[in-house]
């Protein structure tokens, strides 16, 4: 079991264990030790989002890395996929992202990319933890000229803008489109507007005034209502909302209706099927994706492979099977032909390219998939346990599955970042499945002394 790393790096309340400056420095030291690859000088990229605590953690990580004789390349606020891209293009030994993604500003996190731009496997994260807790490298202290140095990469944002535009078809542009763009007061507040404007769109930006404490605050992909109202107010063609580190994206159509990650994957995957560019005619999604996605793909002549929740597991399956498109309902989309990780801006560009090439509105494209009603109920429990080993909980789950009669499903899983049991049901009638989900939640709560979070 890992002690620090969860499904997406180390995460928690900033300045509270494990997200302290002291731990960040130790993480930096351990990572620097692991990523040395025999070159004369070694380099690790550090980027961040716009959280106030980013300054503290950036300095601590930098100190830890430099103390092991590794140089640091500081890129400042930049989307997570931008840091992956810069790490790979600059041939650095690794990249570090200081961000808690869609979490509120008081949280923060640390996650790594290897030199090829992919997130670290579990084995490497376990190695970092082992070095920290065993204290094996405490005595390793380079001195004199062997100490690392920090450099600031002033044109990192410009480099990423150029890269993103290169993923958009050269025979198309965005002229004629009015886009409401919500950057969540996060890492993409400069990059994203520049990309869409330079490709010819009229951009109405919101969430582009970060102050260190307003990241994801009533804005961004977790709060698409603000964007929806702006689309209707301005008569825009669509809205695009990123999260704090811009690795996910949620859309609204011209009517202000939310178009989530499942529908975006359906739009992109079925279009790629028609173009003959979807490798093995297969889309990779997680177990949280709606059954409507499977139905849409089957109708179009493709198939869906499901993984555990977490974009890292989607990428692992894509690499293993040679697939080039995957993602999550939450809006993480991975286009491996272009980038190595979830990229909200890049994903938006792929959707906009389809709209422009086919001359269709987003609402029309979204008709490719019909979502089954889906209900998610969370129960906070004292400790993680296999609920199927608890007779009364197992019985109510089995009873619900029998009532669904193959026209829906029950998915029970633990959150990767919180002590929450997530109970997800799909079926034809939302009120009915909500009652059944609450019944399972109440049974689990009563059996284990938990708190139903709704």
Describe the structure.
The protein is α/β, with parallel strands linked by helices and 454 residues long. The protein is built from 14 helices and 19 strands. The chain has helices spanning 21-35, 54-66, 80-89, 122-134, 156-166, 191-198, 224-234, 261-275, 291-300, 311-321, 344-358, 362-365, 391-404, 430-448; strands at residues 10-13, 43-48, 71-77, 94-98, 107-114, 150-152, 178-182, 202-206, 238-242, 249-252, 258-259, 282-286, 303-307, 325-327, 333-335, 374-380, 409-414, 420-426, 451-452. The strands form 5 sheets. Strands 1-5-4-2-3-6 form a 6-stranded mixed beta sheet, sandwiched between helices. Helix 1 crosses helix 2 and helix 5 (156-166) crosses helix 6 (191-198). The longest helix is centred in the C-terminal third of the chain and has 19 residues, at 430-448.
Average pLDDT number? 94
- Determine the N-to-C terminus distance: 29 Å
Q: Output the number of helix runs.
A: 14
Strand order of the largest sheet: 1-5-4-2-3-6
Binned, the helix content reads 25-40%
Task: Give the helix/strand class.
Answer: alpha/beta
Strand tally is 19
Please give the largest β-sheet: 6 strands, mixed
Q: What is Rg?
A: 22 Å
Strand content: 15-25%
Shape: globular
The low-confidence parts are none
Binding site for Mg(2+): 101, 243, 245, 247
Family: Belongs to the phosphohexose mutase family.
EC number: 5.4.2.10
Function: Catalyzes the conversion of glucosamine-6-phosphate to glucosamine-1-phosphate.
Keywords:
globular, 454 residues, 19 strands, 14 helices, six-stranded mixed β-sheet, five-stranded mixed β-sheet, 37% helix, alpha/beta
């Amino acid at each position: 079991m890992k002690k620090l790393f969860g499904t997406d790096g180390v995460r928690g309340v900033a300045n509270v264990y494990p997200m302290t400056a002291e731990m960040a420095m130790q993480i930096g030291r351990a990572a620097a030790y692991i990523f040395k690859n025999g070159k004369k000088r070694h380099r690790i990229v550090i980027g961040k989002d716009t959280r106030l605590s980013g300054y503290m953690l950036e300095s601590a990580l930098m100190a830890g890395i430099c103390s092991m004789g590794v140089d640091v390349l500081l890129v400042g606020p930049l989307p997570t996929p931008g840091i992956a891209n810069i790490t790979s293009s600059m041939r650095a030994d690794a990249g570090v992202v200081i961000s808690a993604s869609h979490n509120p500003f008081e949280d923060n996190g640390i996650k790594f990319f290897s030199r090829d731009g992919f997130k670290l496997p579990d084995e490497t994260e376990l190695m970092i933890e082992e070095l920290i807790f065993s204290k094996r490298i405490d005595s390793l202290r380079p001195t004199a000229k062997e100490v690392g140095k920090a450099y600031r990469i002033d044109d990192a944002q410009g480099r990423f803008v150029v890269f993103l535009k290169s993923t958009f078809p050269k025979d198309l542009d965005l002229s004629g489109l009015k886009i409401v763009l919500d950057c969540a007061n996060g890492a993409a507040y400069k990059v994203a507007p520049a990309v869409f404007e330079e490709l010819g769109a009229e951009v109405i930006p919101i969430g582009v005034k970060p102050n260190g404490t307003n990241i994801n605050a009533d804005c961004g992909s977790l709060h698409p209502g603000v964007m929806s109202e702006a689309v209707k107010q301005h008569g825009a063609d669509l809205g695009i909302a990123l999260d704090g580190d811009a690795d996910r994206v949620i859309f609204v159509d011209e009517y202000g209706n939310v178009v989530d990650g499942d529908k975006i994957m359906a739009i992109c995957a079925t279009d790629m099927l028609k173009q003959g560019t979807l490798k093995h005619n297969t889309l990779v999604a997680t177990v949280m994706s709606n059954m409507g996605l499977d139905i849409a793909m089957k109708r179009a002549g493709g198939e869906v492979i499901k993984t555990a929740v977490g974009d890292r597991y989607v990428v692992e399956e894509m690499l293993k099977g040679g697939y080039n498109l995957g993602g999550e309902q939450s809006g993480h989309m991975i286009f491996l032909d272009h980038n190595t990780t979830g990229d909200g801006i890049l994903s938006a560009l792929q959707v906009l390219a389809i709209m422009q090439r086919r001359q269709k509105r987003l609402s029309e494209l979204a008709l490719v998939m019909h979502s089954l009603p889906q209900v998610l109920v969370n129960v906070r429990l004292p400790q993680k346990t296999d609920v199927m080993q608890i007779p009364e909980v197992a019985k109510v789950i089995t009873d619900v599955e029998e009532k669904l009669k193959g026209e829906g499903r029950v998915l029970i899983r633990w959150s990767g970042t919180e002590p929450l049991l997530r109970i997800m049901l799909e079926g034809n009638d939302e009120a009915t499945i909500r009652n059944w989900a609450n019944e399972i939640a109440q049974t689990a709560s009563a059996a284990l002394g938990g708190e139903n979070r709704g």
